[in-house]
Amino acid sequence: MTEKPVADMSFEEAMAALEQVVGALERGDVALEQSIALYERGAALKAHCAGKLKDAEEKVELIRAAEGRAVGTVPAEGL
Amino acid sequence: MATALYTHPDFDGHQTPPGHPEQVARLAAVARGLAGMDLLRLEAPLGAEADVLRCHPARYLERIRRAVPVAGWAQMDGDTYLAPGSYQAAMRGVGAVSAAVDLVLTGGVANAFVASRPPGHHAERETAMGFCLLGNVAIGAKRALDHHGLGRVAVVDFDVHHGNGTQDLLWDEARCLFASSHQMPLYPGSGAVDECGAHGQIVNVPLRGGSGGAEMRDAYEARVFPRLAEFAPELILVSAGFDAHRDDPLAGLKWDEKDFAWLTTRICDLADQFCAGRVVSVLEGGYDLDALAASVAAHVGILKERGQ
């Protein structure tokens, strides 16, 4: 498991770490006492990935909105 | 009739290293939760090897006996330790469950709660793990079947971790319905819906991390209680872990005392319907001491109310 803080991870890094966590929990090769800590790390990674996806979605929306204005308004003004 | 409470000072001989969550103080918390409650308080006898051997081979029991240290600890797995008093404690646990099954089946009491340590539901045939040495509940179920001649015994495990040990010990036991609810993914990793036992008699009910009492109630009403009713048990054993409590440090479900009381009530309803109210409940996990005291009080309070 990498020592890099979850908040500093890229989407790809966080996804890879999340897959490791889920894999370890599903294989059952984690001690009972550590299991919840690992689960919590998984939850933090999932939240981080979800946040990154949301950011990306918002950027796509902004681009779409900007494109909409460009095609919809500029030609009309020119007439 | 009364509700019996089995416990014994020998359980405190199963000491765990400092900082270990499965600690001696847990039974003091249980005692605090049950203080002043009108229960038939009984000393747990030592268990018989014959009872253990229905679930674990003699070489495994011998391995534990030999591994017991003279002082300090012997480590069995990542988080399972033996102290000098651990073998005695484990055999008291077997004795407590066996005596509780005997007393309930012979009509001495309506139902019983066993306050024992170490817990048992992670112990597989030849593997001590997850704080557990011997599969107490499965041993109790086998005693009810083989010694008392019952034909159908149900085991309900509401500890937050999957009862992999009980599942292993009862995998091929057609006379037992085993139902376990547990957070997933979490230790020990097993307990998927498609793990059904050799005879389709095992019901695994994984619950989502962060989920609470409402999800638990829906899951039991939809998946556990109909199977129990269809099975029509002659005795219900309960692996009563209280680590699904919202304050528990080892898991992430959000149940509270009311949820444990509800679940106990519904189990007693089914016991009333099919087996004259016969329930033997055995302590498993529960690691926040205050939550454990309050949850055990809620659970045993219902057993007592229903046992009258």
Describe this structure in words.
The complex is a heterodimer of chains A (79) and B (308). Chain A is mainly α and 79 residues long. In chain A, helix 1 packs antiparallel against helix 2. The radius of gyration of chain A is 20 Å and the shape is elongated. Chain A starts with 10 loop residues before the first helix and ends with a helix. In chain A, 18% of the residues are buried. The C terminus of chain A is likely disordered. With 308 residues, chain B is of the alpha/beta class. In chain B, the strands form two sheets. Chain B has an eight-stranded parallel β-sheet with strand order 2-1-5-10-9-6-7-8, with helices on both faces. In chain B, strands 3-4 form a two-stranded antiparallel ribbon. The radius of gyration of chain B is 17 Å and the shape is globular. The relative contact order of chain B is 0.16. The interface between A and B is medium-sized, with 17 and 24 residues.
